[in-house]
Amino acid sequence: MLQTLASSSISALLDSRAEGHSLPAGLYIREDVFEAELEVFFRQHWICVGVECDVPEPGDATVVDIGKTSLIILRDDEGEIRVLHNVCRHRGSRLLNPGKTIISKLVCPYHTWTYELTGELSFAPHMGAGFDRECRSLKPVTFKSIGGLIYVCLSDNPPEDIDRLEQVMAERLAPYDIRNAKVAHEFDVIEQGNWKLTMENNRECYHCSANHPELCVSFVDLDFGFDPEALSPEDRSQAEEHFALYARRTEQWEADGYPSAAVEQLVDCATNFRTQRLIISGAGESQTHDATAASSKLLGHMTRKDLGDTHLWGHNSWNHFMGDHAVVAIVIPLSADKTLVRTKWLVHKDAVEGVDYHLQKLTDVWLATTDQDADLVARSHAGIEDPAYIPGPYSAFSETNLDKFATWYIDRMRAHGY
């Protein structure tokens, strides 16, 4: 009965959203909504949780927590990626603590039940001769490695339209060889705001010129929308030249064998994503303070620095793949008003810090941008908690993807009974 009332209450909030406007406050700040979202978007949908190079060698393991669910990502003795539930099959104890570790076997610290890196139970003391170990393996998690990005789905019925993401990105990511890259740096920040505000902030650059001076050295703000009526004749001419350049550059990139055109699956779908090869401004090589490459050893099989930024976003991640390095950001909700943003900088597996790249140049743009975004998200969340908040209209020029995200969000909540 209580669950039915909660669903009805959330449904009324969903009904109240005006088309083309931001969501009502309750969808950002209510704990019952947050719990429903964890179930819908972080258990029933595919989410990005890491990269294969998080666990580069057999025995490497890392733990990722999603709500009350704890996952072990590891590389087994045969070099294969495994994703297992971090729950002992005896009495449920956690096997590994959060973070990275190196193991030869998975040993429960409570009663020393021991599992192979495949998840098979190999040792269970004092359980008697009739005990059947074969039915007590660790529970595996459904996952896909797409170009080296690890996606999991915690549902028994994962959405099948992940296949389009896999088809599109396997080809686009192949030259970067993310599977065999190296995590040069990882940085966690806890934003004081709702996870949807984190994602909305990332899906528009309406705010970029006023808030991201470092990023705007390499980003072209015209790529993220503008009001043509507000442009001077000189600026309008510049915009026309830019998009003519985009058309030529995209055509040439694709002729050279690098898929580049925008591919979107943003509404009327379960698996939400967008990808496109973007022009890098200035020196045109990388997202650094001077737009030149941060690493002299290029990623994977890359031989060119002029192939722009292959961006990819999903509903809990965004990524930028450039000739010299990649930036992978993963979003994990912690509560209705707290969100973990985990950012990883990837370089060629053989790149040497201090020789092929310098960490400051590699990371400074996105460290600054992440800090600035955290402040913006906190400001947004605080304003939405204010009783004076009324959902406002999205810009028809710069925030169309936010409108699509809100529409998709409501459709998916509806599809799961709200």
Automatic annotation (TrEMBL):
The keyword Iron-sulfur applies. GO terms for molecular function: 2 iron, 2 sulfur cluster binding; iron ion binding; oxidoreductase activity. Keywords: 2Fe-2S, Iron, Iron-sulfur, Metal-binding, Oxidoreductase. Pfam families: Rieske (PF00355), Ring_hydroxyl_A (PF00848). The keyword Disulfide bond does not apply. InterPro entries: Rieske_2Fe-2S, Rieske_2Fe-2S_sf, Ring_hydroxy_dOase_asu_C_dom, Rng_hydr_dOase-A. Its cofactor is Fe cation. Residues 46-152 form the Rieske domain. This is Rieske domain-containing protein. It comes from Rhizobium freirei PRF 81.
